[in-house]
Design goal:
It comes from Roseimaritima multifibrata. Keywords: ATP-binding, Hydrolase, Nucleotide-binding, Transport. By secondary structure, this protein is of the alpha/beta class. It has a single domain, classed as Rossmann fold. Helix content is 38%, strand content 25%. It is built from 9 helices and 10 strands. The strands form 2 sheets. A 6-stranded mixed beta sheet has the order 6-7-8-3-9-10, sandwiched between helices. The protein has a 4-stranded antiparallel beta sheet with strand order 2-1-4-5, covered by helices on one side. It is globular, with a radius of gyration of 19 Å. The structure holds adenosine-5'-triphosphate.
Length: 268
Amino acid sequence: MPNAIPQPAAASAAKSNRLATSICDVRKEYVLKSETVRALRGVSFDVPEGDFVAIMGPSGSGKSTLLNLLGCLDKPTAGHLLLGEDDISSMSDDELAEIRSRRIGFVFQSYNLIQQLTVVENIQVPLYYQGRLGSEERRRATDLASTVGLGDRLDHRPNQLSGGQQQRVAIARSLVNDPYFILADEPTGNLDSKTTEEILTLFDRLNGEGRTIIMVTHEDEVARRAKRVVRLKDGLLRSDTTNDEADRQLAREEQKAAVIALAAREED
Ligand SMILES: Nc1ncnc2c1ncn2[C@@H]1O[C@H](COP(=O)(O)OP(=O)(O)OP(=O)(O)O)[C@@H](O)[C@H]1O
């Protein structure tokens, strides 16, 4: 069984009433030559620490725009977006870059690992940018590699790992800064059903340890594993529903059964 993440503050966060983020009447417009695209038209919702939210919606509904705002890659045109206590709406670009590199844990569909670096070095990357390269940081990266089940792959490079293992490295990297939340963009989009199941089980465990997860997905069976599903449509929040624990458990069991059935078919 992999180690739990060595972070007491995060471990107790599931029980806290603090907000990881608060999105208040957020609007985002892209001004083009001939028109203004209103990508978000007044979206509001809160994400308490310890939540696990799936963001869904049809193409063009504003998911990537919202993800970019949550990841401090862009600022709202109007409204407020709080990360912890900080309102990013009024920050300078430098302040945004700082908060992005220190306090957001990104996980992408395509892993975005550096091919020349080992597992441990990839996990340490967010710390390089802060000049934190000491033995304590290396130990932290090694602990995180064990946490995601890669304790025996520390010196492997990405091309020596499976897709699921690479996504585990990316998840460990996302945690190295003790982020406000893990921001995952289609994290299982490139993975087969067995590996998808493994990554979702890892998210379940991290969330159980108090980690906040915000994940964009197109897949209903992935969204069923989250605690909550926020749906966007035409730049507006269309629904915000809770997946109760019994439904989540059913989703886990169904997905595990589907993986076992697939493996049995492949053996025949
Ligand atoms: N940089 C941009 N400049 C102009 N318009 C943009 C820009 N980014 C997004 N848009 C527009 O904003 C709207 C919302 O786009 P967004 O990418 O957020 O949707 P999405 O839900 O992520 O879609 P998909 O699922 O296809 O990725 C769309 O009409 C899109 O064309």
